[in-house]
Amino acid sequence: MNHILVAGAGPVGLTAALALARRGFAVTVLESGDDLAAESRASTFHPPTLEMLDDLGVGDELHERGLLSPTFAYRDRTEGLVAMLDLAVLGDDTRFPYRLQCEQSKLTPILLAHLREMPGFAIEFGFHVTGVGQKEDGVIVTAADGRAETGDWLIGADGAHSATRRATGVTFDGITYPERFLVASVDEELTGWLDDLASVNYVFDPVEWCVLLRTPDHWRVLLPTPVETPDEQEFARLDSRLRGVHDPGRPWRVAHASMYRVHQRVATSFRTGRVLLAGDAAHVNNPLGGLGMNSGIHDAVAYATALATGDDATVWAATTDRRRIALEYVQSVSHQNYERLRATDPDARAAHLDGLRATAADPALARQSLLRSSMIASLRPVPA
Ligand SMILES: Cc1cc2nc3c(=O)[nH]c(=O)nc-3n(C[C@H](O)[C@H](O)[C@H](O)COP(=O)(O)OP(=O)(O)OC[C@H]3O[C@@H](n4cnc5c(N)ncnc54)[C@H](O)[C@@H]3O)c2cc1C
């Protein structure tokens, strides 16, 4: 039985570990933290990701903790609802024709609980990967505290600042957006304030575009924030910006708020010898469209499937294919989402909104659009 090391116990590393363990591999996960990360970040699971997690035996538990979101909405700050897209038109394309709204911090404990029942599974917390060495038939991974682990392969799923990626000398090309994204989780019920809300709402505006997302615990408001202002200043004016979404005549109840720098970057190679990069270690993108974690989970399952063949060329093909999808699909769709939300040219904006209304009104057009936004088209050929 091959022994596979996985750096990082985020959603991607633990999915890779479970997909490998289900295929009979011994797996050791090396995680720098003392426990699983509690930060919520990703909150949208797309249909193909739900299929993969269900195939791994964790679908029911994830559904119990999440909210079904059969529709999502495009809105305009001033006009209100522009178009409501209904994933029911994907009924023949997937057994999960909806998004599931659930924080990534709810998925990782489920994955770990299942892993702990698998023979040959181990996890080392407090293992901060600093070095990766390779021989022809294996890898040795070293930690800051001097610990070392050997395996036949290493999957680097240690996030955007991946030590695995840096240790293998792979560069991370791309751009950093000038704006930062401010995400506020609020203890408010937005459906009482705004008409025609779905659980996921993309709100167009040339100046103050935003995203309104429902998670099981909160509504979240994502706002763009200039790069040059100090964080404290942005947090101080958050309430006035939230009151621009709706003014309840009192301050919004904000549970917590976080500021993120946002990048579009893809590693120059997803494979170096016996080291494979997955998830944010391999590619990062803006959160508009909810593609980052989802595509990382797709990497994890693709690598486990390829490694199970025992065929080196198949493993190369999987990493090459996942990099192609990161470039051609994830980077392109997420950047397009960003450009459209903030478009300033009135004619281009009007044409885009008209296009969205026409798409929502025509089931065939809606299906084509949803096959792409739900990531199904990134993974398999779809019948017309
Ligand atoms: C505001 C926001 C909203 C988002 N919304 C969505 C969404 O709705 N849908 C979506 O698909 N994506 C979304 N994303 C992106 C998503 O959060 C990431 O793509 C996802 O977390 C990537 O998972 P990962 O397992 O690759 O990396 P991470 O979640 O970053 O996990 C990496 C793990 O590796 C560990 N680690 C780091 N360094 C080391 C080391 N040297 N040694 C050992 N372990 C290490 C970390 O402690 C961590 O546990 C969002 C991101 C943000 C910021």
TrEMBL record:
Coiled coil: none annotated. Keywords: NAD, Oxidoreductase. Gene3D superfamilies: 3.30.70.2450, FAD/NAD(P)-binding domain. PANTHER family: 3-(3-HYDROXY-PHENYL)PROPIONATE/3-HYDROXYCINNAMIC ACID HYDROXYLASE, BLR0106 PROTEIN. Residues 4-309 form the FAD-binding domain. This is FAD-dependent oxidoreductase. InterPro entries: FAD-bd, FAD/NAD-bd_sf, PheA/TfdB_FAD_monoxygenase. The keyword Phosphoprotein does not apply. It holds the Pfam family FAD_binding_3.
